Amino acid sequence: MDFSILAIPDHEPAPNSCIALLGGGGKTGLQQRLGRELASKHDRVLLTSITKSAFHSEPRIICKAEIVDDDLSPWFARHNPLCVMGTRLNAYKMDGIEVAELERFKNKTDITIVECDGARNLPLKVHTEYDPVVPDFFNQVIIIIGADVVGTTLFDGLIHRPELFATHWGIADDFVLTPEFIAEVVTSQKGYSSKIPASLPRTYFVNKTDAHPGQADALARAIFAASGQPTWYGSVQKDILTRVT
Q1: Which residues of 37-61 are buried (b: 16+ CB within 10 A; e: fewer)?
Q2: Per-residue pLDDT tens for 199-211?
């Protein structure tokens, strides 16, 4: 199954394409999968983040301090995809790179795939003023949601910042998160769209279909009905990908 269709819907990327990943429920796994697939077709695929991200050993992370004069070519000669991050904060976390650095780096690549927010591995979140806005030089945004959040309530452990989420959306602790409500969160200007320039094309991906097939199908269809944008559901880990039509 080729997940790169999520990043490059027209099968032919624009020069120096920059793809944003936003949301929760599998961003890093999807980024790494897209990186592997796109590196089989393109010589210079860059993976990075403009926010804090989990440390991983594969693909190997290059700290930006190791790069001289923004020259990525020696690194691409050895690594494709190439993963560049900021400094290592601790055993588990890396800092991202600055937006200005990203803009310079992306002009030296074929495709750059960027994590643009954090969710602590949880499937749904509320954005705050501190979350970065997706820069307007991006070409595409992929919004990710975990199907496991459907049918849960605020304090079942699947919402990032649950108290802020409750206040922002005006819901009670026992409010059940329906597909239609989650679709509003991830598509509306009050929700995830507040961090995305209106001009940017977006694609929605509901992950974890393998473990939650009914929830994934219902959520993907609700998102498609609310947004009219390309919407897919599947599983990065189990190689499943289906488009809502």
Answers
A1: bbbeebebbbbbbbbbbeeeeebeb
A2: 999 999 999 999 9
